[in-house]
Write a structure and sequence with these properties.
Layout: E1 2-4, E2 14-16, H1 20-23, E3 32-34, H2 48-59, H3 64-70, H4 74-77, H5 83-107, E4 119-129, E5 137-147, E6 153-157, H6 165-171
Antiparallel strand pairs: 1-2, 2-3, 4-5, 5-6
Protein name: Transposase
Length: 172
Amino acid sequence: MKISYSSGCKSLGTFICAKASCKGKAGGSGVKISRRQGTFFENVTLDMPHIYYLIYAYSQGWSYNQTIHEDPYKRQRQQCLSPNTICDWYNYCREVVVIYYLEKQNQFTGKIGGPGKIVQIDESKFGKRKYNKGRHIEGHWVLGMIEDGSEDLRLEVCPDNIRSAEHVYKIN
């Protein structure tokens, strides 16, 4: 197996099988497998430097306008990144962060806190707003809990959408 690089910025390289059994496949040059396959970068049409820039901008908490303004590649592309592209990549990055924390949350079992421990709790309602109906929002209440001095993070959906002390105490 060897790695072949193309001249464009879109490529991370391609693995090419050099065995004789592979030579008859894929036009005689051997079986080719992209290094992007099965990764965050699979099926991406942007060049790699632009992707890294968008991930950097997301990690810095930049707004869409700031991301467009600070883009070092806009002259090279001769156009600005569209707000839709930035939105898609920010959502993708957000999704990766959520998946990471949910997987990390599953590592921890049992209760958090205890005597002399401080647990910070915050509540948020996730859902869609019903327009022309006042401030009523359909959705679910979620409690976020983290113990000070620990990486143990918990996200729990409030049972029956009730946030009373009795119901919250039963969660964990």
